[in-house]
Amino acid sequence: MRASPLRLLPLALLLAAAPLAAMVPPPIPEKDLSFGDGWTFQSRGNNCTATRTLGEDLTLRLGFTNFEDGYVWLSGKALPAIGDDEGAKHEKGAGSVEDADGNFADALDAGVTYASFPGTALFVDGHVAARFVYGETADGKTSYKLGHLQSAVWSRLKAGTEMRVKLLGKEAAVVQLSAATGLWEEMQDCIGQYPHG
Predict the structure, then answer these.
(1) Which of 6, 51, 43 minimizes the C-alpha distance to 188?
(2) What angle do CA 41, 45, 47 make, to 5 degrees?
C-alpha cells in the first residue's frame, strides 16, 4: 500500500525546515548587573551596555552590540552645550589613521600629546580610544558620540588599565578599568554572541 503524496507533504516540509531550525540561535539572555567602581551592565537583545557616572551630571555609556556597530556616549548637564559650529572645537587634536592591515583607528594628530590635546575624547592608557564624532543639545540635555568603530574602541578598553576623559582639553574623569572586576568579561560574552561578535 502506497502513501498518498498529500499525506507525505507535512513530513517533507518538516524535514526541509529542520536545517533552518538548527541555525536559529537561542535568545540572548536579558541581564542587569552591577560591578565595582560604580559600573552597571545591561544586556537586551543585541545591545551590550556598560554605564558609569563620571561626576555630577556626567555619564559614560558604552553602547556596544554584537553587530560591531555600537558607540561610546557621554551625556549630562556637565557637558558644554553644542551650538551650530561647536563641533569643530571638540574635534581638534585627533583624527583617524590607517594601520598596516588597512583598519582605521582614532589617534592624536602629529605633535599633539595627552597634555596638549585641545579637543574631546576618551583615552585608554594614554592613547585616543574614541574621539568626538557628533554632539547635540536638546531640551537642556547634551550628548556626545565618541568613536567611529566599535572594534577599535573595544579592543583598547578591554586590554587597558586606565581610562581618561577630556572635554575641550580639560580632564573630566580618570577611571581605573581593573576596578570593575568581571565587567569586561561580561561585555565580551555579550558582544561575542550570535551572529557577528
Answers:
(1) 43
(2) 50
- CA dist 116 and 126 (Å) reads 12
Chain CA centroid to CA 102, Å: 21
68: DSSP letter: S
Half-sphere exposure of 41 (CA within 13 A, CB side): 24
For the residues 149-173, what does the mean pLDDT come to? 92
How many residues can be counted in the chain?
197
Cell of 10: 507535512
Q: Is the pTM of this model over 0.90?
A: no
- Considering only residues 155 and 12, tell me which one the structure prediction assigns the higher pLDDT: 155
Find out whether 197 and 56 touch, Cβ atoms under 8 Å.
Answer: no
Phi first, then psi, for residue 5 (nearest 5°) are -55, -30
DSSP class of residue 191 equals H
